[in-house]
Amino acid sequence: MTAIILLWSVTAAQAMLVAAMGCYTYRLIRGPRAQDRVLCLDAIYVSAMLLVLTVGIRAGSPIYFEAALIIAVLGFASSVALAKFLMRGEVIE
Amino acid sequence: MTHSGALPAWAALLTAFLVLLGAGLTLLGAIGTLRFGSFFERVHAPTLGTSWGTGAIVLASIVCFSVLGSRPVANELLIGVFITVTTPVTLMLLARAALYRDRAEGKPGVPDRSVLRPPRGRDQGENGGDQ
Hints:
The complex is a heterodimer of chains A (93) and B (131).
Chain A: H1 2-30, H2 34-59, H3 64-88
Helix pairs in contact in A: 1-2, 2-3
Chain B: H1 9-35, H2 39-42, H3 47-69, H4 76-105, H5 113-116, H6 118-130
């Protein structure tokens, strides 16, 4: 019984994370300005990392932890690079 | 889920609750991103997913793998600490870039530079007081 509860809650959590990524993608496409898009890209990275973690819980394999860590590091690096580009790419300081 | 029979009832229920909590908070943050009107309001919404959304799912992963492996597994704490440390850096850089762009475009309602640089303003105030 508890196994079924766990299975369904992990499935529902994955569905919610995918829905969150959908919301962010909508804002990414529609977002009025570039900073909204960068914000949503960063949030999509975090949601994808959480999705990989829940896939790891579902599979019961700790190998997904490394994938999630790599996604987190790359997301941080790319978001900082894009923010710096927005800061310096348009107007010469 | 082939391993779920190996989890005792309390661990399975705790994992289920924490996973649902984290995913629900992340979804709430995403809906907030859709609903808020301006960028400086929107920049707050995803932090719901990066604070307790990440924290709850990381805790669920720790509980699950610690009970499965019969030993404490705290690798996932690394992800939690990393996200907690890096999210404010990213969002503050982004907000400063947005402010810079707003000011460069001459948008109305942007705060004055002197408001945003309290150290310089305070130094000037002290110099004024000395004179």
